[in-house]
Request: fold
Amino acid sequence: MLVNNSYNEPKVTAAIGALVGPPFKLSQRWQLGGIGSPKLIISQSSIEIHNLLVLDHNTNSCNIELRPKGIIVRFRSLLETYALIIPYYKLHLYKGKASEYSVYMDQYFVKVYANDSVHQFFRKLRNEKNRNTPPSIEDL
Reply:
């Protein structure tokens, strides 16, 4: 779900909470070693996200926040904040090139460049996805 998250709207906040859960508590954030990614530079994106990013001439960047049942990918365009809400069961992570990660959900995707701290964050993200995804029918 791609939403404009610039303003405090209770309906949008409730929808986000229903999909990916409430934010982690402070003690859980400490246990995880932080829940936010470093600044991620976007190399490529789906057409819906690309159409928002080309409206201004700033560097296309985003960040990812971990939630109990999913992630939120946030980026800015024209002084507006947009959020791509991805539950873990719809999240697909790919590492195509040595220095690039891809985050997919349905028709949306974002590809970001990677360095050492980004590799550590995506390792943490992959572990959280594995911990929170129910077993598939083939595993039973």
